[in-house]
TrEMBL record:
<feature type="domain" description="Lon N-terminal">
    <location>
        <begin position="11"/>
        <end position="204"/>
    </location>
</feature>
<dbReference type="Pfam" id="PF02190">
    <property type="entry name" value="LON_substr_bdg"/>
</dbReference>
<dbReference type="InterPro" id="IPR003111">
    <property type="entry name" value="Lon_prtase_N"/>
</dbReference>
<dbReference type="InterPro" id="IPR046336">
    <property type="entry name" value="Lon_prtase_N_sf"/>
</dbReference>
<dbReference type="InterPro" id="IPR015947">
    <property type="entry name" value="PUA-like_sf"/>
</dbReference>
<protein>
    <recommendedName>
        <fullName>Lon N-terminal domain-containing protein</fullName>
    </recommendedName>
</protein>
Length: 214
C-alpha cells in the first residue's frame, strides 16, 4: 500500500507508555483527551491518515516527557464516535520510523520530523521465522498465561502465522514500557521472538522468586 517515498516526513505522534504498535499489527485506541481528539480529526483530513505511536521517556524535572528515538506509524483504518464525544479508533501498523526532530507548532498535540529509512522491510510482505519451534514456544506461553491469569484462544494461536503470533503477543503481553521498546526495535522477527521468550522466561522466574519470598 505504501512505499517509503509515499510516507510523509512530518507526522503527529501519540506518546503512550506501554502501547506497542508493530508493522501489520492492529492497535485499538480509546481517545478522550481534547488534544488527541484534535489529533484524530486532523489526521482524518490527510491522505496518509498516519499517527506515530511512540514510547515517552520521563525525565525528572522536564516540562514534558522526552520521546524514544524509534516509534511505529499506523494508518487510521477504523473510527467510531460515542455519544459523549469520545473516539474509538484502530491503527494498522505501516512502518517503524526514527525521530529526527520534534516540530514546534500551533497544534495541541506533538508532531515530529521522522525518517523511515532503514525500515523498508516493514513495508514488504509478512516476515517468517525459520528457527521458530512453535510447540516449545506455546508450552512456555501456556505457563506464562497461567502465571499471569491470562486467557486466550489456543486454537487460534496454534494456527496463526509466525509474524501474526509473535507480533500480537509482543503487543498484548503486559510487559514494562522499556521491554515493549526492545520488542519494537528488534531488527528481525527472529530477534523479536528471542526477545519475547527472554521476557516471558524472566517474568516466570521473577514470579517464582516472589512466591518463595511470601
Amino acid at each position: 500500500m505504501f512505499n517509503v517515498a509515499d510516507l510523509p516526513t512530518t507526522i503527529p505522534v501519540f506518546p503512550l507508555p506501554g502501547a506497542l504498535l508493530l508493522p501489520r499489527g492492529r492497535l485499538p485506541l480509546h481517545i478522550f483527551e481534547p488534544r488527541y481528539l484534535a489529533m484524530v480529526e486532523d489526521c482524518m483530513k490527510t491522505e496518509s491518515r498516519l499517527i506515530g505511536m511512540i514510547q515517552p521517556r520521563e525525565v525528572p524535572g522536564g516540562a514534558s516527557a522526552r520521546l524514544h528515538s524509534i516509534g511505529c506509524a499506523g494508518r487510521l483504518t477504523a473510527f467510531s464516535e460515542t455519544e459523549d464525544g469520545r473516539y474509538m479508533i484502530t491503527l494498522s501498523g505501516v512502518s517503524r520510523f526514527r525521530v529526527r526532530a520534534e516540530v514546534n507548532g500551533f497544534t495541541p498535540y506533538r508532531k515530529c520530523d521522522v525518517s523511515f529509512d532503514g525500515f523498508e522491510r516493514d513495508l514488504g510482505p509478512a516476515e517468517r521465522d525459520p528457527g521458530f519451534d512453535r510447540k516449545q514456544f506455546l508450552t512456555l506461553l501456556n505457563r506464562y498465561f497461567d502465571a499471569e491469569e491470562l486467557k486466550t484462544d489456543w486454537d487460534s494461536l496454534s494456527d496463526a502465522e509466525d509474524e501474526l503470533l509473535i507480533n500480537a503477543l509482543s503487543m498484548l503481553c503486559p510487559f514494562q514500557a522499556e521491554d515493549k521498546q526492545a520488542l519494537l526495535e528488534a531488527p528481525t522477527l527472529t530477534t523479536r521472538r528471542e526477545t519475547l521468550v527472554t521476557l516471558i522466561e524472566f517474568a516466570l522466574h521473577t514470579g517464582s522468586d516472589e512466591s518463595r519470598m511470601q
